């Protein structure tokens, strides 16, 4: 018997992340005042006290839901491309779809690393995870957006495709701003702890631009994946087959 509730996976993914990040921000910036209220990076809200546990748990579970969403989407595209009426679609789309699945795995490993290695004091592995999550993740979204445009109207709708194109462009700009101004702000930083960034720490304006861009980037990726819920309603996912061979 197949699973008819695949559409819940991207919804759970988005809901979990929003609850986790809202909780860590509320605890770290408002209640415990572990980080400045204006304006911490997403990762800064998960460094201290109980927030670290919530942040790690949220990213760990969220990464599983995220790769499940990407896997279901790639399976969906694969099935569409194999339909008899879709034989006119380019075979290159199949390769791109497969590549995007493997890139999605890399991106999710990056997300998992973000939860395992707090930015303070493990900034190097944290930044490696961020690079894998955001850079590779954006490539996955761009690839799937391109595929969505090519397989329409067999799957999807025009409005969603336009929204996805706009979102990918916004996310690309946000990523560039986050990296560029984040790097500049670090060069000007004069404090001892980057999670305690204030106007007196140096590079404050650059810091705020980078932080705002990161929040846009994070929430944008979450929203993008959540939009698959509508298209997943037509999916019935069956268990994968297994063949056992003797040596």
Automatic annotation (TrEMBL):
Top-level division of the source organism's lineage: Eukaryota
**What does the organism's lineage look like at the top?**
Eukaryota, Metazoa, Ecdysozoa, Arthropoda, Hexapoda
Q: Where is the CWH43-like N-terminal domain?
A: 6-234
Q: Which residues form a coiled coil?
A: none
Under the heading InterPro entries, the entry gives: CWH43_N, DRAM/TMEM150_Autophagy_Mod
Decide whether keyword Oxidoreductase is in the record.
no
Instruction: Kindly list the residue ranges recorded as spanning the membrane.
Output: 7-31, 54-74, 95-115, 127-149, 161-184, 204-229
Question: What do the Gene Ontology cellular component annotations say?
Answer: endomembrane system
Q: Its topology with respect to the membrane? A: Multi-pass membrane protein
**The name this protein goes by in its record:** CWH43-like N-terminal domain-containing protein
């Amino acid at each position: 018997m197949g699973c008819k509730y695949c559409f819940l996976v991207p919804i759970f993914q988005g809901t979990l992340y929003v609850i986790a990040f809202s909780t860590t921000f509320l605890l770290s910036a408002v209640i415990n005042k572990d980080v400045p209220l204006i304006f911490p990076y997403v990762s800064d809200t998960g460094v201290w006290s109980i927030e670290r546990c919530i942040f790690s748990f949220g990213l760990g579970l969220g990464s599983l839901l995220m790769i499940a969403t990407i896997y279901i989407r790639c399976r969906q595209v694969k099935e569409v491309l194999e339909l008899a009426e879709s034989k006119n679609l380019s075979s290159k789309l199949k390769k791109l779809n497969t590549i995007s699945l493997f890139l999605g795995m890399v991106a999710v490993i990056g997300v998992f690393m973000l939860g395992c290695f707090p930015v303070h004091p493990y900034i190097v592995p944290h930044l490696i995870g961020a690079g894998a999550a955001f850079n590779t993740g954006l490539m996955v979204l761009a690839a799937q957006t391109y595929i969505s445009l090519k397989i329409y109207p067999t799957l999807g709708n025009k409005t969603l495709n336009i929204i996805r194109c706009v979102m990918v462009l916004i996310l690309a700009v946000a990523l560039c701003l986050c990296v560029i101004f984040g790097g500049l702000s670090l060069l000007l930083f004069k404090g001892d702890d980057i999670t305690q960034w204030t106007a007196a720490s140096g590079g404050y304006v650059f810091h705020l631009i980078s932080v705002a861009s990161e929040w846009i980037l994070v929430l944008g990726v979450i929203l993008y994946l959540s939009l698959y819920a509508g298209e997943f309603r037509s999916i019935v996912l069956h268990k994968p087959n297994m063949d056992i061979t003797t040596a």
